[in-house]
Design brief:
The chain contains six helices and no strands. It has helices at residues 15-25, 31-50, 54-61, 75-93, 98-108, 115-122. The model is unreliable at 1-10 and 118-123 (pLDDT under 50). The protein is mainly alpha-helical and 123 residues long. It has one domain (29-122).
Length: 123
Amino acid sequence: MNSRTTRKERPYRGFTDAVKDYCDRHPELSDSYCRWVYNHCSDQLNALVFGLRSKQLKAQFEVNSNALVRDCLTADELGTVEDIEDIAMRMIDADIEPEKAILDAWNGAFSPRHDRIRLLALE
């Protein structure tokens, strides 16, 4: 990949991949923890950004329980979620526990360096 390659041209590696890799690096973690932590972190992120848990957002959007919340978000809302996931993903790659990474990413988003995230989250 050359230095001019944009983020959209790179192969996508998401938050799910970071959590899976974290669990792979930590064989002492139970399978139930690894299943729980991704769902919990996604739910926690929704609560932080929107003030509602995933189940509540699905009810608000009037979609079934199998639907993805992110499919119901505006471009700005999805951008906010993805920006926080990206920060958390980098932390998880640095071996920070996923639940802590989401909270730290959210708290880090409220710094002058991340004004875009902060402003979108407060709308």
